[in-house]
Amino acid sequence: MYDINITPSYTQITLQQKITSLSAAQPTENNKRAFMRYVNEYMYENHYFDLFEKIVSYRVNEIHQAQDPDAPRGNLYTTLTSPLAESINGIRPFKDHPSLFLYIERIAMAFYGDILMCWAEFKAFQISEQARANLQAHHEERQVPAEMENVSEMYRYEVVEDIRNDERLFLTSHSPYPMTLSLANVLINLETFVKQQHWYEMLYYLDISASGEHFILYQDVGGNTPLLLSSALIQRYDQHDNWLTFDPFFQTDNWTLTLSNEKIHTLEKSGVFSNSLKNKINTKSVEKFDYSLLRTVTQKQAVCEIIRMAISGPREKLNHVLYLTLKYLTMKLADIGLEVAYTIVEQPSILGFYQSVNNDSNNILPYVSICKQQVAGTALTTYQGIVFTGPMSQAFEENSFRDYNKRIVSMRKLARASANA
Description:
The chain has helices spanning 12-21, 29-46, 51-66, 76-80, 83-86, 100-112, 115-137, 181-196, 261-269, 286-294, 318-335, 348-359, 389-398, 401-420, and strands spanning 154-160, 169-172, 175-180, 214-220, 227-236, 256-257, 303-311, 340-345, 367-374, 381-388. It is of the alpha+beta class. The protein is globular and about 70 Å long. The model is unreliable at 1-10 and 142-152 (pLDDT under 50).
């Protein structure tokens, strides 16, 4: 879907020479774009559509073989940017692969820091090129996104049943070209999760962001093409076999249950789960608890999982866009009868707001955290939990953006005071 078949304009040997000639080039924008174009053409001429996958897989296997067998295995980013990787990447040749692979890896490291960021930039390049080609095919003029601060803040939101079938065009903050909603959503997911958060494993599963039911928030910026600001994938109960919550990574012993009587009471009072939960749930492990709780669901049509919440826009606006996304997403879910939303959250600001409104609750908690895990190498903690969209949407309606920020700041102060006590 994202691979752009640019008609080759060079012979294979000339194209390889052009790529290798960039080895000594400065990482200017023009040189980066030329590199992307040459690599794209090389892939199509030689049918190496999985070129980056081959390079990454080869290096990961090579690094794992050189590691102590008992050493913990990190993710793609920590593996390929480790001190051990620095002695391998761009140095050792690729056996049973074209010699050009090593040149491509070296240029990727020189231009983008590492092969993973280059792979992400290449995907973004392909998406933007596909949008440009679509515009040219329809004889439309190039459109450049307007500056958000210079337009009226007309925000709109909706749930789209399947974004793959939506033919509307959207602008993003990451490309000068309008593109279909499906492409635009993949692009903001790529920017949010892969390039910003280094979740490079997602590069293997970008198609998930190109289809399915999504919440979207966008802004009228003048003209006929709105600016896509955020999105979130909605997976309903009948898709629970595909839920991220039940992925093996989120079921290991590294996760710690965070249950309490108050949380179980909230689950019982919601009307979505069975009564007498204590007799029906298994708390011996996160995996056993998750599956036992799912079996107690009595209102299956009211349950979903929300993942891949991507936030886009100018840096100075991102906090406000996040607030609007959380608010309108929660309100829309409640409006369409999705009362329970499974979530996986590590952003401290979101967790701080959830905890703050929980502290004010006298009945059903708007948010119930189920388990947590410390994110290796950071001060962050990731939480699996459930948002009850009814009480949470009420909390958002009662709290302006300013109130939202005040609550977050207050929770940070309490956390610091508790840590220093």
